[in-house]
Design brief:
The complex is a heterodimer of chains A (274) and B (314). Chain A has 274 residues and is mostly helical. Chain A has helices spanning 3-15, 35-50, 63-66, 85-94, 105-132, 134-145, 153-171, 179-197, 210-224, 231-237, 240-254, 259-262; strands at residues 23-26, 56-59, 74-77, 80-83. Chain A has twelve helices and four strands; from the N terminus they run αβαβαββααααααααα. The radius of gyration of chain A is 18 Å and the shape is globular. Classes of the chains: A mainly alpha (274), B mainly alpha (314).
Chain lengths: 274, 314
C-alpha cells in the first residue's frame, strides 16, 4: 500500500466505527498452528482486548494463504483486511483507539525499540527452534504444519517453508548458531525485558501498551506450549516478574471471555500457567 | 591484540559500519590495539573484515564477538550503566538492526546510482589490482541477496514496499533523535557500546557524498543526531579521515581521484595489450600458424583469456 493510499484508507477507516462482526483469522489451534504464529496471534488478540474492541477468532487451515502479507494473524474489519501487529496497531489508531497516546516522545521511542527487541530475538528464536532444531522439526513442526494436507503435499509444503526459513536465518547470521547459543539469546532478551519491567504492573507503569500485548503474546505462548524439551520455557520461568506479568494480563483480559477463545493458546496438552 | 579493518575514507576512520563499530568501541574504552587498516580483506587473518587477532581466543571476526572479548579484557564501555540501561542498549540495537539496516544496505549497495557513483567507485579504487575487478561486485551481490531475504524477494522491484522500507528507516532515525534529545551521549555524559553502534551506522550516511540522498536528507534534518556524529568524530578521531601514525601504509586518499586516474589508465592499457597479445598467440597456435612441438606453451595462452573474462564482468 502506498503512503497516499494508506492515508486514504486510514481516513475511510476513521469514518467507520468498529463493527460487531470483526474477525481475526489464524490456523487451526488444536492440530496445526505453530509456536511463532500462535504467539503473534495471541499478541494481536491481547492488543484488541486491551483496546476493548471485540473480535471473533476464526480458525482456518489455509489462514497463511488468505493473509495479504502471507503472515498470520490478520483481521477482517468491515471491508478491510489488515495483517500483523504493526499495521493492525496503525489501523486501530486510525479508528481512534490507541494505547500509547499517553506516552511522551522518549517513551514512545523506547516502546518501539523494545518491540523490535521482541521481534528480533524472541520471534527469531521461536522460528529457529521450530524450523532449525532437528528434533522439534521432526516431532512437532512437520506433522503440525502439514496436518491439513494429504501426502505428499504435507511434506512438500513443510520442506518448502523450512527451506525458506533457513535461508532467512542465514541472511541474519543465525544459521551458524547452536541451540545453546539461541537459548542464551532468549535468556538475554528475557533479562532485558525483566529489568525493564521491574516491579511495575506494565512496561510503562499503570496502563498497558502494544508492547505489553506483544510481550504477553510471546511469553505466554512459550510458557504454555509443550515442546520436545522445556528448555525454552525454563529460560522464561527464571524471571518471576515476567511470569507474574503474563498471569496478570491473562486474568485481566482473557479470563472473562468465553471459554472457547480463552483457551486459544493452549492448543497442545501443555501445562497451564501456574 | 591486533585489529584489522577497512581503510579510511569519506572523512571517516573506516568506511565499513562493522569495522567502525569495533574501532569506535576500542577508542571509547582506550583499549590498546595495534591497528591495521587494510584495503584488501584477503590480508586479514580471518579472510574478512573486521578481525581481531587475540592471544587467548585466536582470530575473532564477528563484531559482537570482538566487543565481548574486549569487555572480558576489562575494556568495558558499559561498566557504569544500570541494568535497565543495559536492557535499553539491547533494545535500541535491535531497533537499528530491524528498521535502519535494510534501508542502509539499500542506500549504499543496491540503489543503482549510489552504488555505481559512490560505493563501487570507492571500493574499486581502494582495493588492489586483481581484486578490484570482482570484489565490489561480489560484495554487492552478497548485500543484494541479504536484503532480498530480509524483506522478501519482490520488495526491491516493488516501489511501494521500497517506500515502506525507507519510511521505517526515517521513523527509526526520528526515534533515535527523540531518545537522544539534548544529551551528549545516549546515556548521559560518557559513551557506551550503544553509542559506538549508533554512531557507526549513522556517520557513513552523514559523511558519504551520495548522489541519491533520500535517507541522508532526513538525517541531516535531525540536528542533534548530526551534531552527535560530528562531536564523536572530532573527540575520538581527531585525525579526521587520516589514520594514526602507526598504521600500515594505505592507498592514496580516495577523494583525490585525479591522482588515481593515471595508474588506472596504465593498468588498463597494459592489460588490454596483454589480452590482445594472448588472443593473437592463442589464435596463431590453435590454427597452426605457429606450432611448437613442446606441449607446455598452451598454458600462457590460457592465462590472458581468463583475464579477459574478468574484465568483461566489470
Amino acid at each position: 500500500m502506498s503512503l497516499v493510499a494508506e492515508a486514504l484508507v486510514s481516513q475511510i477507516a476513521a469514518a467507520e466505527p468498529w463493527p460487531e462482526n470483526a474477525a481475526l483469522y489464524q490456523q487451526m489451534k488444536e492440530e496445526q498452528i505453530l509456536l511463532s504464529d500462535n504467539a503473534s496471534s495471541l499478541a494481536v488478540q491481547a492488543f484488541l482486548q486491551m483496546c476493548s474492541l471485540p473480535v471473533q477468532v476464526v480458525c482456518r487451515p489455509n489462514a497463511e494463504y488468505m493473509s495479504p502479507s502471507g503472515k498470520v494473524p490478520f483481521i477482517h474489519v468491515g471491508n478491510q483486511v489488515v495483517s500483523e501487529l504493526g499495521p493492525i496497531v496503525q489501523f486501530v489508531k486510525a479508528k481512534g483507539h490507541s494505547l500509547s497516546d499517553g506516552l511522551d516522545e522518549v517513551q514512545k521511542a523506547e516502546m518501539k525499540a523494545y518491540m523490535e527487541l521482541v521481534n528480533n530475538m524472541l520471534l527469531t528464536a521461536e522460528l529457529y527452534l521450530q524450523w532449525c532444531d532437528d528434533a522439534t522439526v521432526e516431532e512437532i513442526t512437520h506433522p503440525r504444519y502439514g496436518s491439513p494436507y494429504p501426502w505428499p503435499l504435507n511434506r512438500i509444503l513443510a520442506y518448502q517453508k523450512q527451506w525458506e526459513v533457513r535461508r532467512k536465518m542465514k541472511a541474519i547470521g543465525w544459521a551458524g548458531k547452536s541451540l545453546e547459543q539461541v537459548l542464551e539469546d532468549v535468556d538475554q532478551c528475557c533479562q532485558a525485558l525483566s529489568q525493564r519491567l521491574g516491579t511495575q504492573p506494565y512496561f510503562f507503569n499503570k496502563l498497558p501498551t502494544e508492547l505489553d500485548a506483544l510481550v504477553f503474546g510471546h511469553l505466554f505462548t512459550i510458557l504454555t506450549t509443550q515442546l520436545t524439551s522445556d528448555e525454552l520455557s525454563e529460560k522464561v520461568k527464571n524471571y518471576s516478574n515476567l511470569v507474574a506479568f503474563c498471569r496478570r494480563i491473562e486474568q485481566q483480559y482473557f479470563e472473562g471471555r468465553d471459554k472457547d477463545s480463552s483457551s486459544t493458546s493452549r492448543f497442545s496438552k501443555g501445562p497451564l500457567l501456574r | 591484540m591486533e585489529l584489522y579493518c577497512w581503510a579510511a575514507g569519506w572523512g571517516l576512520p573506516s568506511v565499513d559500519p562493522d569495522c567502525l563499530t569495533v574501532l569506535t568501541y576500542a577508542r571509547f574504552t582506550e583499549a590498546p590495539l595495534k591497528l591495521h587498516k587494510l584495503s584488501n580483506p584477503w590480508r586479514s587473518p580471518a579472510g574478512r573484515l573486521p578481525a581481531l587477532k587475540t592471544r587467548e581466543e585466536g582470530v575473532l571476526s564477528k563484531t559482537h564477538e570482538i566487543i565481548t572479548h574486549l569487555r572480558k579484557q576489562k575494556y568495558n564501555a558499559d561498566y557504569d550503566l544500570s541494568a535497565r540501561q543495559g536492557a535499553d542498549t539491547l533494545a535500541f540495537m535491535c531497533l537499528l538492526e530491524e528498521k535502519l539496516l535494510p534501508a542502509l544496505i539499500h542506500t549504499f549497495w543496491v540503489d543503482a546510482e549510489n552504488y555505481v557513483v559512490h560505493t563501487r567507485k570507492w571500493y574499486a579504487e581502494a582495493t588492489p589490482f586483481p581484486l578490484n575487478f570482482f570484489l565490489p561486485n561480489r560484495m554487492h551481490k552478497q548485500r543484494l541477496e541479504q536484503l532480498q531475504l530480509l524483506c522478501g524477494d519482490d520488495c526491491l522491484e516493488d516501489e511501494e514496499r521500497l517506500e515502506k522500507l525507507y519510511h521505517e528507516a526515517r521513523e527509526c532515525l526520528t526515534l533515535l533523535s527523540q531518545r537522544l534529545g539534548a544529551q551528549k551521549f545516549f546515556f548521559g555524559d560518557s559513551p557506551a557500546s550503544l553509542d559506538a553502534f549508533v554512531f557507526s551506522h549513522l556517520a557513513p550516511l552523514l559523511k558519504a557524498k551520495l548522489p541519491n540522498g533520500k535517507l541522508q536528507q532526513h538525517l541531516k534534518s535531525l540536528e542533534n543526531l548530526c551534531n552527535y556524529c560530528t562531536s564523536i568524530l572530532s573527540l575520538y578521531f581527531p585525525w579526521d579521515s587520516g589514520d594514526p601514525p602507526a598504521t600500515a601504509p594505505r592507498p592514496p586518499a580516495p577523494e583525490g581521484s585525479d591522482s588515481e586516474e593515471d595508474p588506472h589508465k596504465w593498468r588498463n592499457q597494459i592489460l588490454s595489450v596483454l589480452v590482445a597479445l594472448g588472443a593473437m598467440i592463442s589464435y596463431a597456435m590453435l590454427s597452426g600458424i605457429v606450432s611448437i612441438p613442446w606441449t607446455e606453451p598452451s598454458l600462457p595462452g590460457r592465462w590472458p583469456i581468463s583475464l579477459e573474462e574478468e574484465e568483461e564482468k566489470e
